[in-house]
Design brief:
single chain, Rossmann fold, Transcription Regulator spoIIAA, six-stranded parallel sheet, four-stranded mixed sheet, globular
């Protein structure tokens, strides 16, 4: 490597991965590394992987091949969920020098100091059951919105999911530590923090060594609301069975917690929910949505749905579609089921053909578009607070644009004004 070492990062997957990549980047920059774009030549390339879908695995391989063409002498490090699940498989990809599992991800600096190009691929992985510590992370770049990781891992056993195998048991930071981090981020000029985790509502379980904090996610919400200067918080995603009335009621009266919930559903068919081993049924889910809308009628509600999972017959899909169509929600994140090794879903029949999975995905994406348009139209003429981010985009006429979101997550795009960047502005929705 050169005297002034350089590093480039690429992140696949969820916002939690992005927050972790941002933290790894800061660690290396503190050690003297110069950060470069992933499309540029660098001494070290780090790919933080996801393994929720088969596409993430394929994309990882494509990225390594791209690096080999661009800079074959560089070091290539693979970490993240895919690295924990299939370290040997990754080590056999030509060009990969180091594979870091869940327990070693945040020891990247130390591992880089021992690498020699040309040696056999080094695998540093572990039995996921031994991972009990919590490593905090947050993203800070040119956005005013920061993703702060407060929880990791999951104790659930959904039949389609590899996350418990990739990230281990549920564990989290302490309320005190999170509040202190929020205070530091406020000093950096951050205006909005998105609280992230694998199973965020499980906050309070398992700290260092698996010790329970005896704190809850509601405790965290109250402390951040009362003890920090951050003007806006969002809850990234929370399981319906962990979204309590007290959380909803607190958000309803809070000036800091935005009226925006993202609540995984996965299917609107009770039969499919049972096959998935989810911890609620459609009636319970519907009641959660109604509880929110009753006291926060302007709240934005996003929903995760999986289509084409094993056992999802045409009848069950219609049940799911009709259920979602009737829900008072704002948008969908639609995922097409893909087979994941070592999951219980592989034993469930019948298998839905790929073409049918794709057709169902399109139907729900169209429904999502209609839901989003209807939600936005309901707010035309109302004035809401928009946090404009410092990202300048350009439209087709090459005019610099400024993008931001209302408190209830309606996207606003307007010609760039420097005075509005990273500011909260009263905006009448047209």
């Amino acid at each position: 490597m050169t005297t002034k070492r350089s590093v480039a990062f690429h992140t696949l997957g969820c916002k939690l991965n992005f927050s972790e990549t941002s933290t790894l980047s800061r660690q290396l920059e503190q050690e003297g590394f110069e950060k470069r774009a992933f499309t540029d030549k660098a001494d070290v390339y780090v790919i933080n992987t996801c393994s929720v879908t088969d596409n993430a695995d394929k994309e990882c391989r494509q990225l390594v091949r791209r690096i080999q063409r661009l800079s074959p002498e560089s070091f290539v490090v693979i970490t993240g969920c895919y690295a924990q699940l299939k370290p040997k498989e990754i080590s056999e990809i030509p060009g990969v020098d180091l594979v870091l599992g869940a327990s070693e991800k945040f020891n990247l600096v130390q591992h880089l100091s021992t690498l020699t190009k040309g040696d056999a691929t080094k695998i540093c992985s572990c039995d996921i059951e031994t991972v009990t510590g919590f490593n905090t992370s947050f993203s800070v770049n040119d956005r005013t919105r920061t993703f702060l990781k407060v929880q990791d891992g999951c104790d659930y056993s959904c039949t389609f999911c590899t996350i418990p195998m990739a990230r281990g048991k549920s564990r989290s930071d302490t309320v005190e530590n999170v509040v202190n981090q929020a205070k530091e981020l406020a000093q950096k000029g951050v205006k909005e923090i998105v609280l992230t985790g694998i199973n965020l509502g499980d906050f309070g379980k398992g700290g260092e060594g698996g010790k329970k904090h005896e704190e809850s996610f509601f405790d965290l919400v109250k402390a951040l609301d009362q003890d920090t200067a951050i003007p806006r918080y969002r809850i990234s995603s929370i399981e319906p069975n962990l979204l309590t009335d007290e959380i909803i009621e607190w958000v309803a009266k809070s000036e800091k917690f935005m009226p925006h919930f993202h609540i995984p559903l996965q299917s609107g068919s009770d039969a499919v929910l049972k096959l998935m081993q989810r911890r609620y049924n459609s009636s319970f889910y519907k009641e959660r949505i109604e509880s929110i809308k009753k006291i926060i009628p302007h709240a934005c509600i996003g929903v995760d749905v999986i289509v084409g999972s094993p056992g999802e017959t045409a009848t069950y899909f219609k049940e799911s579609f009709d259920f979602i169509h009737a829900l008072d929600i704002s948008y969908l994140h639609v995922f097409t089921y893909s087979e994941r090794a070592a999951t219980k879903a592989l034993e469930i029949k019948p298998i839905v053909p790929i073409a049918i999975r794709q057709d169902r995905n399109k139907l729900l994406r169209n429904l999502s578009y209609q839901k989003q348009q209807f939600f936005n139209a309901q707010h035309v003429g109302s004035t809401r607070k928009v946090l404009f981010e410092s990202i300048k985009q350009k439209d087709e006429q090459e005019i610099a644009m400024l993008e931001g979101y209302t408190d209830n997550y309606i996207k606003i795009i307007t010609p760039y004004r420097a005075a509005w960047s990273n500011q909260i502005v009263d905006w009448t929705i047209a």
